């Protein structure tokens, strides 16, 4: 039974109003129809898309493989919800790649099997996920790794050092008399001091070294692949000198010092808990 004119009008209205891109694709992978949201997503107008291969949204080196996937789908057409495939990208007309998710349906149009492809722009969702991940793994004040993230790096570094036979070191740093800064100048000044100390740590260490704020005025540094304990002592002295330099906070000059504890793997201990206690 063919749909009535009212049913066709309703289907077209739903297609045009859908917030996701919708493409009708035949069994050769040719685009038969798209909705307005597809134009916004891809940058192509409907006339540019109709009659083209749906593989046009992929980089050239991926198109042949995708054509085989289209053939497989039509051999055994099964509807597929969103969320089944990760890391999908759509190539826009302007050359930019957009993270997407897709769902698949199937139907018949003019007695030919067709696929209904629902395409959702995941840019905002991906940005939100990245923001949430950053907040969960970083200190909100200094931008350094937080305790949880540091412990992940710490355990991985121990495993790498154990396998490679390389030495690694852990530094625990406390700012001396930091409480006096908060009491004398307020917590806003104390926050500025912590931000400045984090900046000095970053500037004094290698790119591969891991720096974290464990909480309050307590920081920690992970030094992978160090040649000797003497080298670690030199780094600690360098950090102590950097952190002890006077710090200008608004109209106030603050002078601090730092206490640094050191533990090395495998010299002092061979597991994270004991290394933390030893430092």
Task: Describe what you observe in this structure.
The chain is α+β, with helices and mostly antiparallel strands. The protein folds into 2 domains: 5-126, PAS domain (Beta-Lactamase); 138-278, Reverse transcriptase/Diguanylate cyclase domain (Alpha-Beta Plaits). The chain has helices at residues 5-17, 36-42, 46-49, 63-75, 123-137, 147-164, 178-185, 187-204, 229-244, 272-278, and strands at residues 21-26, 31-34, 88-91, 97-109, 112-121, 167-176, 210-215, 218-226, 247-249, 252-254, 257-265. The strands form 3 sheets. Strands 2-1-5-4-3 form a 5-stranded antiparallel β-sheet. Strands 7-8-6-11 form a 4-stranded antiparallel β-sheet, with helices on both faces. Helix 7 runs antiparallel to helix 8 and helix 8 (187-204) packs antiparallel against helix 9 (229-244). The longest helix is centred in the middle third of the chain and has 18 residues, at 147-164. The protein starts with a helix and ends with a helix. The model has no long low-confidence stretch (mean pLDDT 91).
Keywords:
alpha+beta, 5-stranded antiparallel beta sheet, Alpha-Beta Plaits, 279 residues, elongated, 4-stranded antiparallel beta sheet, Beta-Lactamase, 28% strand
How do the strands and helices of this protein lay out in sequence?
Blueprint: H1 5-17, E1 21-26, E2 31-34, H2 36-42, H3 46-49, H4 63-75, E3 88-91, E4 97-109, E5 112-121, H5 123-137, H6 147-164, E6 167-176, H7 178-185, H8 187-204, E7 210-215, E8 218-226, H9 229-244, E9 247-249, E10 252-254, E11 257-265, H10 272-278
Antiparallel strand pairs: 1-2, 1-5, 3-4, 4-5, 6-8, 6-11, 7-8, 9-10
Helix pairs in contact: 7-8, 8-9
């Amino acid at each position: 039974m063919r749909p009535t004119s009212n049913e066709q009008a309703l289907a077209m209205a739903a297609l045009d109003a859908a917030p996701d891109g919708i493409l009708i694709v035949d069994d050769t992978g040719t685009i038969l129809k798209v909705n307005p949201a597809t134009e916004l997503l891809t940058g192509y107008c409907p006339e540019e898309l109709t009659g083209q291969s749906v593989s046009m949204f992929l980089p050239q080196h991926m198109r042949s493989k995708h054509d085989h996937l289209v053939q497989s789908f039509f051999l055994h057409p099964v509807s597929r919800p969103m969320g089944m495939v990760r890391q999908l990208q759509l190539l826009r007309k302007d050359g930019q790649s957009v993270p997407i998710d897709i769902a698949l349906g199937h139907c018949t149009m003019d007695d030919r099997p067709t696929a209904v492809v629902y395409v959702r722009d995941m840019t905002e969702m991906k940005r939100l996920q990245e923001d949430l991940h950053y907040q969960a793994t970083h200190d909100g004040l200094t931008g350094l790794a937080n305790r949880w993230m540091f412990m992940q790096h710490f355990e991985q570094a121990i495993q790498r050092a154990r396998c490679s036979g390389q030495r690694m070191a852990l530094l625990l740093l406390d700012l001396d008399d930091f409480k006096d800064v908060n009491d004398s100048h307020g917590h806003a000044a104390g926050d500025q001091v912590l931000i400045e100390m984090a900046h000095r740590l970053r500037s004094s260490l290698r790119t591969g070294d891991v720096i974290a704020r464990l909480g309050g005025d307590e920081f920690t540094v992970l030094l992978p692949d160090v040649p000797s304990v003497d080298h670690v002592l030199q780094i600690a002295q360098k950090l102590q000198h950097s952190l002890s330099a006077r710090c200008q906070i608004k109209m106030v000059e603050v002078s601090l010092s730092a206490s640094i504890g050191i533990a090395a793997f495998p010299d002092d201990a061979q597991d994270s808990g004991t290394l933390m206690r030893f430092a």
